[in-house]
What does this fold into?
Amino acid sequence: MSKISIKPDDHVFVLTGAGISAESGLPTFRASDGLWAGASVEDVCTPEAWQRNPWRVWEFYAERRAAGALAQPNPAHVALAELEAKLGSHFFLCTQNVDDLHERAGSRRLLHMHGELSKAHCERDCGRPPVEDRAIYQSLAEVGRCPCGGRLRPHIVFFGEIPLEMERIEEEIAKATLMVVVGTSGSVYPAAGFVHWARQYGARTVYVGPEPPLNAAAFTNVVEGNAGEALPGLFV
Ligand code: APR
Ligand code: ZN
It folds into this structure.
């Protein structure tokens, strides 16, 4: 099986997508039985959807909270947490995922660029930060309000909104000598463009997943396989 060598002065930037949580039993988005086969983006993941029918949005994310609470980190999440423990400040993880499986596997040096299921934020721009919220709501009446009176919405970056912490992401990519991308189809920007940024900085770029992503040509090498089998023991 191929190995990825990491030198002492390497800085490793890892980007993960829904595929890394697939072996934990969580659905991906674009598989034939994926999340976007069962619900339409226009109904559950746009600012217009929220304005039109906030309960339909909460219903979708309450279901994903329930599924996420039952899921367990898989060996791929553990392998990345172990790599972080070894590399310390030379490691950075950016996930597109909104589940907390990376944290539950032990990852700490990470950020969620598309938000987090375990949080909610005010629907108004009142400036208050997101709040912890793991409730599995059964009706809109149960959903809390911000002290400003605004209704709480899932702390999820909807399509058409700007991903979180892009400055930090750009700083970390500028430092990277190795970018490892795991389990993402390369369908959504800016995340799908990170590999091109890394190449411009001269980094090696590796993709890990069972099928080539849309941006496969940008990777210096591809490790074909499921993350839970391919990641453990991959880094030497
Ligand atoms: N191990 C690794 N990769 C896997 C596995 C696995 N066991 N199973 C599936 N995959 C791969 C698929 O081959 C696919 O390339 O995971 C990828 C999942 O792609 P998508 O469903 O498009 O999910 P993702 O790329 O994370 O979507 C990006 O789109 O809908 C938005 O905000 C949402 O963050 C999400 C973004
Ligand atoms: Zn508010």
Residues 28-70+115-156 form a domain with the SIR2/SIRT2 'Small Domain' fold (CATH 3.30.1600.10). The chain has two domains: 1-26+72-113+163-236, 28-70+115-156.
